[in-house]
Design goal:
This protein is α/β, with parallel strands linked by helices. 26% of the residues lie in helices and 24% in strands.
Length: 361
């Protein structure tokens, strides 16, 4: 049994990594910054392939008091995590003005165990993380490599883009599971729509990319191929319910179409050009989710408040029975929209503090 730390976007720790089923017992435990869970090497691979919400996954490889760090070479098999001749880097936190005291024992253990291992900082370098907290040291291996939000399809973005895993997390916070209609009336580059389609189709978000752990001698390539095939076998041919998106900006819709095509879900989306303040609801009810403009430029405050008031009136008039999830960066705009009996969730979008508000109309 191995221990994993699944890093999630702030505010989404309680949702979990999302994806292809939980690892082995005990159940995942939310902590600040992520989720702690346990499992075997298959679980680690499944987490990566199916993780819709996680940002990165770390394999815990050693914990102990700081003085015991000098005996690390006999306690950890670094040859299972780094192939002969592989490059590696060691990052530390908590070492203060003397970081070498944390880094040096790890580097020496790796160089002693792995033939021709060498330091490096490129994209293929295996990263190890050493953290000191009140005299206790935790060492982890980065099992992910490139950030998990990088699915590969979103090569173009709109004005206020959401990371893919944040969009997937918002859908989960809103309680959407893919069996009811989904609608984004200000869809921009289409991230909510694509993530919704991938989830509804049960398509693993990591199916078209590789991960750092796939280079480990510890992980058999045949096992990797079997797990990928097993997850693909669970995919649906079509979403159980329609997925609609609209935007009044023709350029944004073009970006959404191209992103959906790259993700392989374009045929499952219904896209149209429309103004959110006058749009008609598609067949439903279901979940209306959107990330409207924040109005960060000078002089836009009144214009944005009027937009939100008009949008709020449209929701009240035409979207009875729908659940609504809207991401706000300004409390005044939230007040202008006027959602009834809303539940709020503190999140961050691109470093901007935000609040996701979920309400039933």
């Amino acid at each position: 049994m191995h221990h994993f730390f699944v890093i999630t976007p702030p505010g989404l720790e309680g949702v979990g990594p999302g994806g292809a089923g939980p690892p082995a017992p005990p159940p995942p435990r939310p902590v600040p910054g992520g989720v702690v869970c346990s499992g075997d090497r298959c679980d680690l691979l499944r987490l990566h392939l199916g993780a819709r919400i996680a940002s990165r996954i770390l394999l815990r490889i050693w914990e102990g008091p700081l003085p015991a760090l000098q005996r690390l070479s006999s306690a950890v098999d670094f040859g299972a995590l780094l192939p002969d001749g592989g490059t590696f880097a060691v990052d530390e936190s908590g070492g203060g003005s003397r970081p070498a005291e944390l880094i040096r024992p790890v580097e020496e253990a790796i160089l002693r165990q792995v033939p021709a291992a060498r330091w490096g900082d490129g994209a293929d370098a295996q990263r190890f993380l050493v953290r000191l907290d009140r005299g206790h040291v935790t060492i982890s291996a980065d099992a992910t490599g490139e950030h998990l939000h990088l699915r590969g399809y979103r090569q173009e973005t709109g004005v206020a883009p959401l990371r893919e895993n944040l969009a997937a997390g918002i859908l989960a916070l809103a309680g959407w599971e893919g069996s009811t209609p989904l609608f984004d009336p200000m869809c921009g580059s289409g991230t909510f729509l694509v993530e919704g389609a991938l989830a509804a189709l049960r398509r693993p978000p990591g199916a078209e990319r590789t991960f750092a752990c796939e280079r480990w001698p510890w992980l058999d390539p045949e096992l990797v191929a079997e797990e990928r095939d097993a997850l693909r076998a669970q995919e649906r041919q079509a979403p159980p319910a329609p997925i609609h998106g609209s935007d009044k900006n023709a350029g944004a819709l073009g970006v959404a179409r191209r992103n959906a095509q790259r993700a392989g879900v374009f045929e499952h989306l219904h896209l149209a050009r429309a103004d959110a303040t006058t749009v008609e609801p598609p067949s439903g009810p279901g979940l209306l989710v959107t990330n409207p403009p924040y109005g960060r430029r000078v002089g836009e405050e009144r214009e944005m408040e009027e937009l939100y008031r008009r949008f709020g009136r449209r929701l009240a008039q035409r979207f009875g029975g729908w659940r609504v999830a809207v991401l706000f960066a300004d409390p005044r705009l939230e007040a202008a929209l006027g959602l009834p009996k809303a539940t709020g969730h503190a999140l961050r979008n691109g470093g901007i503090p935000c609040r996701l508000v979920v309400a039933d109309i």
